[in-house]
UniProtKB/TrEMBL annotation:
Stated name of the protein: alpha-glucosidase
Subcellular location: Endoplasmic reticulum
Catalysed reaction equations from the record: Hydrolysis of terminal, non-reducing (1->4)-linked alpha-D-glucose residues with release of alpha-D-glucose
Residue ranges constituting the Glycosyl hydrolase family 31 C-terminal domain according to the UniProt record: 735-823
GO cellular component: glucosidase II complex
InterPro entries: DUF5110, Gal_mutarotase_sf_dom, GH, Glyco_hydro_31_AS, Glyco_hydro_31_C, Glyco_hydro_31_N_dom, Glyco_hydro_31_TIM, Glyco_hydro_b
Organism whose genome encodes this protein: Glonium stellatum
Region named Disordered: 213-254
Length: 977
């Protein structure tokens, strides 16, 4: 769902309300760039870019930042000191306390603050109520672990004059070499520099200074802007800045922080979502095919966003990783303010003889944030998996969702009545199409008042819930952070009376405009707001909801129709008197987090895993729920763009991601809709959604053959739910992406580092290449290794590194299985995932070129937190060519509820084993021997039917073990000798 574009005018209440509602019925238009800042229109970005240009063009530049050698101390894995910034011709110095902390994980954390602001030794302008300090609480929201300080970090005895060297990390293989004058840091691994701070001298921490009123220049005596920029003293946006009819008062004056971070020998950098851009980030300083603007992180409600752009979108994760053959490193820039990031690449100065490992290209980045402290984590890998694990330890792993959440969700803006919802539900059943969740957008409410139902269109929500529950289905309702300002509405009355709303710069409740018209915003930085928010979701408060009701948080950037850049003024105040500028990118996560907590406490004694979707996010949002890529278009280009966007979310620590299937705006052709469902079946979050003005497009609408083909795609998703659920479990324990790009799976394959249109599902070996072009009847899929790959459906074999053409008529999904894996699935079609709970499993054993394979299966109740007390099954399946046996091995732990859960699952069995690439020597075999732990003596070894199918042309030989009658939760062996 999306807001109308913001006006640059100060609308009156009546006119704006009228316009907002009328916009629902007017044709959509593309993004209005004039509503969003460029770097040149963002004062601090322009200043820091100009500063960098001055340095680059000067042959005599010396950074004004020096680490005072006498101030350095090192104790218990932490280095402290003071950086002195020299200001002006008089040589005045500004003191900047520095801390470099070396963590047990091998991560280094660098923080830099400003002493005067830290001590509150400044004067705020306009008698502002804002805090005097730089914002230093982002870690409170984003960081949940991984901060144990290393006991092994030690100062090096080899330190030269003017430098301080610290050995840290595993076996002391990492080094931080800190140069004092000018200040810079090199981070090394195994003796080789991986990351450099301030190597180009772009570091800039705008210190506090009082505003000195200057007389207006006489006509003809104005200082040219260009001259002001070169001297670095362009004050035009230091104190006040106007955009879109709003003036930002900046009570603390200029306070940006900036730093250049270089990755020597790394050509590819990824991450910093959310952008509709390539996964491998493009350069931003112009040139053929490059951007002219930096990547921007400033959560915003962008109407019909454009593709191939560094423009900001709905979420911000300031985490970047650099990759080259044999090495991955990363930096996490922990800052919640508006941030811009320049990316440039240059020829490396490395030894050309080392090019087998290092790239001939260096990537140099320039990070610029409007406010806050400088707080950076340095992750030295060396593998993509190491980066995922370490970043996940810091910001948290993906929450383990309920089983239904990874199945199919049906949504549109809007299902208009409760009868409409029930009719859609019945029609899915009539056409035998599986789905788990139906969604309600804002129209279900009584006049856009959240926690209410429209009495005319949704008079009996309990009846609606009851019908859904019969098929184990769920309902998701939208709840946004703006609360309607109207009479006789208890929610807004309580919000105001308890003082829980966001404040304006004067300390009064901030009033803006959104879907309901005049609105207030819940300030979820306030602990009291969260306590209150929890009460609203209880069943006796949010009447008509039940245990199968879940929540969607939209518009939480926050979207404000009449605000600057369609969001809040930066000088608004949040709890603790922090300015909105300091916490903007955190805002959506705090609201999402409050909703998650509220769902946990709806009813005493009822503890179910929450499901809460968010549009806005920050580092750490993955702990709470899912996200989607916002208001895309029903165009082939947006289908294609969804894949790199979702892959980038995954490698950036937030893998529970999806895109609106079919496109939010516009009416997709039947072909596009069909292909989008085939692609959506490989999104971790799989939801069809559409704008209020679009035609209905539920899967049963298009008719034959489209409905049947879409149904096949949906059934494929449901068939593979065991593999998806196992991938989610891996993400929840290791931070690994759920869908993975080529570079993550094959980090040594430099030919595949830019591939972004195909994806692997978890560790299953499943490789999908969705069709994203109109009229295409084939795809070129890239194979990175020398293992055999088999078509999922007919076992056609593809082998040899490079591109392979796969025929893909409309009914065909290009999906391969990499040799060496065992894929769990459930083959019985059901109406919803919960109805599959007791179904048997099929194991697809895909042999590698050596004749071996292995895979895992994770199963729990898909609903509660009992898995935390051992109520789960976690098995590793292995086929060993040498022993000619397939075995099931327990890799799970035990807990208070392990035995009871295993007893519950005792009758759930493996009903079929399929072996793809079966050896020819099995031809003629008709039975295999099966043994199971705990079986009675007479049944300990039993013979089971076996069928062998010979290879035909390019189609591999395959074999089937039919109903070995082994429990999925027990140890067993199938002997093929």
């Amino acid at each position: 769902m999306h807001s109308p574009t913001a006006s640059s005018l100060r609308w009156t209440g009546v006119f704006l309300l009228f316009t907002a509602f009328c916009s629902l019925f007017t044709p959509a238009v593309m993004v209005k760039h004039e509503n969003f800042k460029t770097c040149d229109q963002s004062g601090f970005c322009k200043r820091n870019r100009a500063y960098a240009d001055t340095i680059t063009q000067s042959s005599h530049w010396k950074s004004p930042y020096d680490l005072d050698s006498k101030s350095i101390t090192f104790e218990n894995g932490q280095l402290s000191g003071t950086i002195l910034k020299t200001v002006g011709k008089a040589g005045e110095t500004v003191r900047l306390p520095l801390t470099v902390t070396f963590l047990e994980s091998g991560t280094a954390r660098v923080t830099l603050d400003e002493e005067k602001r830290q001590k509150g030794d400044i004067v705020l302008r306009h008698d502002s109520k804002a805090r005097k300090e730089r914002y230093n609480e982002a870690s409170k929201w984003a960081i949940v672990g991984g901060l144990k300080i290393s006991s092994g970090a030690a100062l090096s005895r080899e330190t030269e004059a003017g430098t301080t060297k610290v050995h840290y990390g595993p076996a002391g293989k990492y080094e931080a070499i800190i140069h004092h004058s000018p200040f810079s840091i090199k981070f090394k691994r195994d003796g080789e520099t991986q990351i450099k701070f301030n190597d180009r001298g772009f570091m800039n921490m705008e210190h506090w200074r009082p505003k000195i009123e200057k007389p207006e220049p006489k006509e003809g005596e104005e200082q040219p802007l260009e001259t002001a920029e070169v001297t670095g003293e362009d004050e035009s946006t230091w104190w006040d800045e106007t955009f879109g009819g709003n003036t930002d008062t900046k009570p603390r004056g200029p306070e940006s922080v900036a730093l250049d971070i270089s990755f020597p020998g790394y050509e590819h950098v990824y991450g910093i979502p959310e952008h509709a851009s390539k996964m491998s980030l493009k350069e931003t300083r112009g040139g053929d095919g490059n951007y002219n603007e930096p990547y921007r992180l400033y959560n915003a409600d962008v109407f019909e966003y454009e593709l191939d752009s560094p423009m900001t979108l709905y979420g911000a994760i300031p985490f970047m990783q650099a990759h080259r053959k044999g090495s991955t490193v990363g930096v996490f820039w922990l800052n919640a303010a508006e941030t811009w990031i320049d990316v440039v690449k240059s020829k490396s100065g490395s030894n050309p003889l080392s090019l087998g490992v290092k790239s001939a290209v260096d990537t140099q980045t320039h990070w610029i944030s409007e406010s806050g402290i400088l707080d950076i984590f340095v992750l030295l890998g060396p593998t993509p998996k190491d980066i995922s694990q370490t970043y996940g330890e810091l910001t948290g792993f993906t929450a383990m969702p309920q089983q239904f959440a990874i199945a199919y969700h049906q949504c549109r803006w809007n299902y208009v009545t409760d009868q409409d919802v029930m009719d859609v539900d019945r029609r899915f059943d009539k056409h035998k199409i599986p789905y788990d969740v139906i969604w309600l957008d804002i129209e279900y409410t009584d006049g856009k008042k959240y926690f209410t139902w429209d009495p005319l269109t949704f008079p009996d929500p309990k009846k609606m819930h009851k019908q859904l529950q019969k098929r184990e289905r769920k309902l998701v309702t939208i709840i946004d952070p703006h609360i309607k300002n109207t009479d006789k509405y208890n929610v807004v009355d309580e919000l105001k009376s308890k003082g829980l709303a966001v404040k304006n710069k004067d300390g009064n409740d901030y009033e803006g405009w959104c879907w309901p018209g005049s609105s207030y915003w819940v300030d979820c930085f306030n602990p009291a707001s969260i306590t209150w928010w929890k009460t609203l979701f209880k069943y006796d408060s949010f009447k008509g909801t039940g245990p199968n009701t879940f929540i969607w948080n939209d518009m939480n950037e926050p979207s404000v129709f009449n605000g600057p850049e369609t969001t809040m003024p930066k000088d608004n105040l949040h709890y603790g008197n922090w300015e909105h500028r300091d916490v903007h990118n955190l805002n959506g996560m705090t609201f999402h987090n409050a909703t998650y907590d509220a769902l946990l406490e709806r009813k005493k004694g009822e503890v179910r895993r929450p499901f809460a979707l968010t549009r806005s996010f920050f580092a750490g949002s993955q702990r709470i729920g899912a996200m989607w890529t916002g208001d895309n278009l029903a165009e082939w280009s947006h289908l294609a763009a969804s894949i790199p966007m979702i892959l980038n979310q995954g490698i950036s620590g937030f893998p529970f991601a999806g895109a609106d299937v079919g496109g939010f705006f516009g009416n997709p052709s039947k072909e596009l809709l069909t292909r989008w469902y085939q692609a959506g079946a490989f999104y971790p979050f799989f939801r069809g959604h559409a704008h209020i003005d679009t035609r209905r497009r539920e899967p049963y609408i298009p008719g034959s053959p489209y409905t049947e083909i879409i149904t096949q795609a949906l059934r494929l998703r449901y068939q593979l739910l065991p593999a998806w659920y196992t991938a989610f479990h891996e993400a929840s324990t290791t931070g690994a992406p759920i869908v993975r790009p080529n570079f993550y799976v094959h980090p040594g394959d430099d030919k595949g580092f830019e591939i972004e249109d195909q994806l692997y599902i978890g560790s299953t070996g499943l490789l999908a290449k969705p069709v994203v072009a109109e009229g295409a009847d084939s795809v070129s899929i890239y194979i990175a290794d020398d293992q055999p790959y088999y078509d999922y459906f007919d076992y056609t074999t593809y082998s040899g590194a490079g591109h392979h053409t796969i025929k893909a008529p409309l009914e065909k999904i290009p999906l391969l299985m990499q040799g060496g894996h065992i894929i769990p699935r459930r083959d019985r079609p059901r109406r919803s995932s919960s109805l599959m709970k007791w179904d048997p499993f099929t194991l697809v054993v895909v042999l590698d070129k050596a004749g071996n394979a292995e895979g895992t299966l994770y199963v729990d109740d898909g609903e509660t937190f009992d898995f935390e007390q051992g109520a789960y099954i976690h098995r590793r399946f292995q086929f060993d060519r040498a022993t000619k046996a397939l075995t099931s091995i327990n890799i799970g732990g035990t807990g208070a509820k392990t035995a009871a859960w295993h007893k519950t699952m005792s009758k759930v069995r493996v009903e079929k084993v399929v072996i793809v690439g079966a050896p020819g020597e099995w031809k003629g075999k008709t039975e295999v021997v099966v043994s199971e732990e705990g079986a009675k003596e007479s049944a300990r070894k039993k013979k089971v039917e076996f069928t062998f199918h010979s290879a035909q042309g390019k189609k591999a030989a395959w074999a089937v073990v039919r109903d070995p009658k082994v429990a999925v939760g027990k140890g067993w062996k199938i002997d093929f000798s």
